[in-house]
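Thread: Newbie trying to understand structure tokens

Hi all, I'm a second-year student working on a class project, and my supervisor (Dr. K.) asked me to get a predicted structure for one chain before our next meeting. I've only ever worked with sequences, so writing a 3D structure as a token string is new to me. If someone could post the tokens and maybe explain what I'm looking at, I'd be very grateful. Here's the chain:
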Amino acid sequence: MPKHAPEARRHWHAMTPEEALGQLDTTREGLGEEEARVRLERHGPNRLQQAKGRPAWRRLLDQFNNILMLILLVAAAASLGLGHTLDAIAILGVVLIIALIGFIQEGKAEQALDSIRDMLSPRAQVVRGGKRREIPAEELVPGDIVLVESGDRVPADLRLLEARRLRDEEAALTGESTPVDKAVAAVDEATDLAERVCMAYAGTLVVQGNARGLVVETGDHTEIGRISEMLRGVETLRTPLLRQLDRAGRVLALFIMGAAVLTAAFGVLVHGESASNMFMAAVGLAVAAIPEGMPAIVTIGLALGVQAMARQHAIIRRLPAVETLGSISTIFSDKTGTLTRNEMTARAICLPEGEVRIDGTGFEPEGAFHRVRDGEPLDAPLDLDDHHALRHFLKVGVLCNNAELARDEGRWRIHGDPTEGALVVAAAKAGLKAGELRGDHDRHDAIPFESERKYMATLHRMDGEPYLLVKGAPDRLLQMCHRVRTESGEADLDRSDWEARIQALSERGLRVLALAEKRADGITDLTDAHAEDGLVLLGLVGLQDPPRDEAIEAVKDCLAAGIRPVMVTGDHAVTARAIAEQLGFAHTDRALSGHEIEAMSDAELEDIILDVDVYARASPEHKLRLVTAMQAKGGVCAMTGDGVNDGPALKRADVGVAMGIQGTEAAKEAAEMVLADDNFATIVRAIREGRKVYDNIRKTITFLLPTNGAQGLAIMLAVLAGSLLPVTPLQALWVNMVVAVTLGLALAFEAGERDLMHRAPRDPAAPLLDLFLLWRVVFVSVLLLLGVFGVFSWIFNGQNASIELARSGAVNMLVTGCAAYLINSRYLTRHSLSFEGLFGSRPVWIAIALAMALQFAWTYLPFMQLVFGSAALGLGHWLAILAVSVAIFLVVELEKWVLRRLHGGHGGSEGASEARQEHAEVR
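---
Reply by user tm_fold:
Sure, no problem. This is what the structure looks like when written as tokens:
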């Protein structure tokens, strides 16, 4: 695709319309058709470049990019070459099952760039050669003149040339849901993206008015295009568990291969065995010792976590995110709609007689009015029949207003501007219905709100007299007012007093509007001159998008769990800090602005990242830098967001969390998790589930590894001693599969420990198996080894039975011993010698029953005996196996008791938890 050469980005918002037209060598009449065609060749189509996804074959091959899998493939090929076809087929079957699980899970292709591209308008109204026509949006070029109106999606980045009451909804780009009033006048070069009122950006939505704009950027060079490029260039991090499994796999593979080679060499050189036999012994050792079922078990454990989270409205799009949630130390969250309700609410009204606080949150018209004394609201609600000034204020707020309150499908909604809607809801709380008021007081004329004038004015007849009602920015209305209305009549306006009131409301994070009026005798057609002089101030109203009640509790839970919530918003710093204080954030004494972030180097940003919890006026680049800086300090980050602008940071974060209701498709596709209810508290529940999943995976791995260890040691010792193998490679593979798919899966269903959300976040650098768990693996491996050799020797040597019968005893001893150890493994250090410990988990006993059923089939079915070389055991053999299994269970319980005594009542895992707490405090 043709592209124009890279060049420094021009500050179109700082140019006048004529300067912008001159820069692009065009006029208000638009380009000619021939010039447009030339520019299309030079700049390329107005569409976003699409990244190529991985083909299915590549995704399947990537599943084998694992050293443990490669060793098994080599073992299968070697077995086939030596004529051991059955062994080779069995090994290949296991490898393919594991690979298919990964292939299917990764089959959900990335759709982020497609969804961003789809946000571009498919058609555009353009002026070319002085004539208006409709063309595909892809054919737009810099220099085109485009017409947009209410309901249109902006097709390219536009420098506005004309704007008539234009309001643009830029939530997908800036994260702020309130529509932005647009104007034509240039702004300062350093103006933030959210405040460039003379620009309309590609992918945003026109909600009111119409405009004529100059196309200044197209395709990948638009603001959305830049985000798309960032999204393509962001590195996706591997999760802590995957990194630990990779590291453990490499170490384990080296150890197993070394042991297999040395064992085979020892058999050839010392005992004079044939190279072929010893090679198969080495293959058997590798097959026995490699925990090939572990990746599948981890995947299933994560999948169970996905199902549990879905029931709690957290939709997981990528399995490893379940585990990563358990190690989250920082949550970067947008403010609007995520931490707040996205429902503008009137909180306070300032009248000449004092302040009035309003109860209730959101659009539901329920709440009382309370007079404020010494900064605190009085308990007794006001009777509005006795407070005419307040009632009149609310009445004016409804009449000078275009919004409507309606109940749709059991939920209260605002149709129109949410700021105006807050005034309608406040009046409804006082029993004033907008429909009735507007019916009784017809509007005769109006001056719509525009950003240049900063007010709206309407003309009504009230109590038989004509009145001009005005609503707007408080600083603007103070200039237009000379008097103030009190309960007893009009009085002189004390500007300094009202400016102090405005400042006080603003410092509380409230958005302030002023209301005013005047008699309008003889006025039939409103002009700006009528409204801008001689007004009587009625009062001020403070509005706020309130915090979610559940978000306040969620923040409290986060802090108790050692997790830092951080607000990153496009809103003003004062408002952001006020909301953060209400939510209970830890560091609210300072808010860092987007300009300050831009002025910092990466090192400087890393130095302050742990001390600031509020970032205001932030752009997409800032969010990405913040996540990167926190990760550089060792943090594991979640990033919540709902707009296109959040995509790069969502992808870079360890867990990207998108909003399901208000989120764009681009945000959902870039994220690992989507909140179906847009509820911040759902994140906390998901983190708890993530911690539980990791605990259970850790228990499962601690349970599985002794099985492989015992088999590997048994084969190694047999070769070193020059004796018969107690377990064949094929039998070892059977044991691994039976234990993995039955017993190993049971621990994934364990309930979470009681202290899950009172621990510090897990250190992602900590090993998956600490010294305590490594000791447990070695200790139990030796116990199982003694049991296997004991039963094998007793049957083969003591009873002079066949090798098939002795190996059947050894295999059943191994599986039954593992079943006993499974009950031990429910608690790593707590004792299991109680009714709850022994019988408290239904999945454990179901798994034991399934495992034993498979073992009976393996032992007694003729075709299983033929395939695996097994033989039927007698009752005496089973009683001996059961006795040894009970002994193993009791010895492990004794080891737990000793460890608890050595640690003063706590086991090794608690010590590890304390170490993680210290790590979190350092972070």
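A couple of things are worth pointing out once you decode it. The first strand starts at residue 123 and ends at 128. Residues 680-721 form the longest helix (42 residues). Feel free to ask follow-ups in this thread.
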